[in-house]
Design brief:
single chain, mainly beta, five-stranded antiparallel sheet, 0% helix
């Protein structure tokens, strides 16, 4: 059974993303280490949940699998879109 994609989502399932730091900085959310910044991945899941780090913000959290297979759950502030994932057998210019 597939769950519906949340209306609050700003990234689509299958969208290519890069891991980044919030701009402007949000110290209360933490940070990613320099070795992971810029790593590319694909959005595979989105859930809407509360985050107590900044006063109980409720919003989307994305499950991203990076190119090396590492799983990450990140808020949208830590992601930048690289566009949709190309269909198999196609090339990008």
């Amino acid at each position: 059974m597939t769950t519906p994609w949340p209306d609050e989502a700003t990234f689509a399932c299958g969208e290519r993303v890069a891991l980044t730091t919030p701009d402007p900085p949000r110290p209360e959310l933490g940070h990613l280490g320099a070795e992971i910044l810029g790593t590319r991945g694909v959005v595979l899941e989105c859930v809407v949940k509360a985050d107590d780090r900044d006063g109980g913000h409720v919003g989307p959290v994305y499950y991203v699998e990076t190119e090396d297979g590492s799983p990450w759950y990140l808020r949208p502030e830590f992601l930048v879109s690289l566009g949709p994932t190309p269909a198999p057998g196609t090339t990008t210019g």
